[in-house]
Amino acid sequence: MEELPGRKSEKTAATEALVKIRGLAKSYRRGDQVVPVLSDISLDIMPGDFTALMGPSGSGKSTLLNLIAGIDKPDSGELRVAGIDITALGESELADWRAANVGFIFQFYNLMPVLTAFENVELPLMLTGLSRSERRARVELTLDAVGLSDRLQHYPNELSGGQQQRVAIARAIVTDPTLLVADEPTGDLDRVSAADVLAMMQRLNAELGKTIIMVTHDANAAHAARKIIHLDKGEILAQPGDKGEILPEPPS
Amino acid sequence: MFPLNLILRNAFRHRLRTLLTITGLMIAVLAYGLLQTVVDAWYAGAAASSSTRLVTRSSISLAFFLPVSYSQRIRGVEGVKTVGHSNWFGGIYQEPKNFFPQFAVSDNYLDLYPEFVLPAEERSAWQRDRKGILVGRQLAEQYGFKVGDPLPLKGTIYSGTWEFTVRGIFDGSDASKVTRLAMFHWDYLNESVRKTSPRRADVAGVFIIGIDNIDSAAAIARNVDAQFANSLAETLTESEQAFQLSFVAMSDQIIAAIRAVSYVVIAIIMAVMANTMAMSARERISEYATLKALGFGPWFLALLIAGESLLISLIGGGIGMAITAPAAAAFKQAAGIFPIFAVSEDTMAAQAACALAVALVAAVVPAVRAARVRIVDGLRAIG
How many distinct structural domains can be found in chain B? Predict the structure, then answer.
């Protein structure tokens, strides 16, 4: 694991890891074959970290992200988020936990095409006890924060890719979750929109202290993070710094 | 409110597909309603029959006649109030396709059928005219008969052309009564037959027995038949409803086929609807996975799919039900074969039940699949 110079988190001083993983393993069944995807993963992610998970296709980075986000279950190992052993939660409890603690940003935005930008961002708030006026205030504030206050009533197909991803970011943060997980958030965007989205994620991390875990295979995108974890064949590689590897310069 | 909003928008996402499905449902529910109404129409005579009337016929077959002299002996059976008789005439009015029942009836026949309401002066006029004929309102309206009009019938059972004059038009006491028939004097028929084929004279097709006490109907029927046991013309006496149902029973297979077709129509639309819902759910699997990732439970997804299915069925089924009555009225007018062709409340309830069943059955598989979808599979995000 590498901490990029000049990007030290203000919260790294905290002693308790937000995400604590020990001996995590996951495999998939393909026909009669069992294909190991993650083996003996141990990892700590501190509150306020912005961590990039990198690796080639099939390295297990998305699987690790899915496990941390509570949308998949490990075969074995310990996985605690904010002290909660999420591997012990049932489906219903896990759904409630995700609703309260995790914000999702997907590669293809995964917005509901029949809902406006406003309604998409309002979706996670439907699971809270907030009143309609409270929801409205919060959605407007969040969409304003991502620069889309003039696109409230636009449907996803009326927005550019970058704008759609900003709506997705607004949806991810509107409930003020503990953890933001992003799976290739710039994978479907042009360079300008990708830089825009990465800058927004950096701001969320730096200004709001959001803990972000991002999967990417794009080195430029990874450099927006504070830390980079490399995976290959289901294992965390030795730290790049330890090997004396020189990482590419972050994007300007 | 939020789920309803989402259901509504999802339902009309693919407008053409949804509109075609709604149209299919509408047609299926309409067809089901009309076919059930055809079946009801078949039973209309039996449904409208009186429990205070018994019918006596030859125990061998309706094609065999009974001596009209039986009337006296039947009248002597305890519990019998009135006895009338009639013969099926089976004439053709202008063309064979203009079919309607015609009966040669005894003079007291109308006393046995108080549900046929005839003005007293028209009844007198009919009684005075040997060749007078009475027509029911439904028949009169169909062919435009008026009192005083000639009504020639070409005999099929009784040869020759029979010239009648309409002397009265009777109404049904309520809308359920079939008045698409004509009645003329049995005496006139009998006199004519006596001249041409004396061996076929002085016979009746059926005797209609009026009784006071419904509870003794079975005993009276037994006693009537006992009067003629071991004779050359044994009788079979039964309630009017059983008599009517014996006619319906002759068409049992046709009715069964009509019923089967009505269920097949519903089964087909159920398959179409299930396909529509399955396609919709399959296309949205990543959206369902996203909703699950956001914390929405499997029941919410099942609700979305079932709600969408219900909404489409409600619209299609609702329109189908709404147009069934006007379509039945148009069918009655155009076809002219069923004097009673009204959509019953039972049929409408069955239509609603079919639409509901279609909605629920079509939603089951996609709803279960959506509820069970693994989020990571739905998102297709294996790194």
Answer: 2
Show which of residues 185-214 on chain A sit within 8 Å of chain B, judged by CB atoms. none
Nearest to A213 by CA among A94, A67, A16, A100: A67
pLDDT of residue B336: 67
Suggest the residue from B299, B303, B372, B376 to mutate for an interface test with chain A (most A CBs closer than 10 A).
Answer: B376
* Beta-strand pair B161-172/B116-117: antiparallel
Q: Are residues B132 and B167 in the same domain?
A: yes
B203 and B288 in one domain? Answer: no
Q: A19 and A68 in contact (C-beta within 8 Å)?
A: yes
Q: Is the pLDDT of residue B114 over 80?
A: yes
Give the pLDDT score at A241: 40
- Contact list in B for residue A36 (CB cut-off 8 A) is none
Do B100 and B195 sit in the same domain of this protein? yes
B200 plus B272 within the same structural domain: no
Residue span of the structural domain in which B307 resides: 2-45+252-379
* Domain assignment present for B74: yes
Write down the pTM of the prediction.
Answer: 0.75
d(CA B340, CA B323): 18
Show Cβ contacts of residue B317 under 8 Å, excluding neighbours closer than 6 positions.
B25, B26, B29, B351, B352, B354, B355, B356, B358
Q: What is the pLDDT of residues A184-218, one digit of tens each?
A: 999 889 989 999 999 999 999 999 899 999 999 88
**Pick among B290, B372, B380 to test the A interface (most A CBs inside 10 A):** B290
> Kind of pairing, strands A211-215 and B161-172?
unpaired
Kindly state whether residues B221 and B293 are assigned to the same domain.
Answer: no
pLDDT at B32: 96
Question: Does B228 reside within a domain?
Answer: yes
Domains and their CATH numbers in chain A: 2-17+45-68+92-239 (3.40.50.300)
Does residue A25 contact residue A41 with C-beta atoms inside 8 Å?
Answer: yes
What pLDDT score does A15 carry? 65
CA B118 to chain centre: 25
3-state secondary structure of B95: coil
**Element spanning B103, H or E:** strand B102-105
Q: Please calculate the CA angle B16-B21-B22 and round it to the nearest 5 degrees.
A: 100
B179 and B290 inside one domain: no
Contact, B81 vs B57, CB < 8 A? no
Residue of A59, A124, A126 with shortest CB distance to B383: A59
Q: Is residue B214 part of a domain?
A: yes
- Of B191, B206, B233, which one is at a domain's C-terminal end? B233
* B244 assigned to some structural domain: no
User: Pseudo-torsion of CA A110, A112, A116, A120, nearest 10°?
Assistant: -70
**A106–B374: do the CB atoms touch at under 8 Å?**
no
Name which of B383, B366, B382 is nearest B287 in CA terms: B366
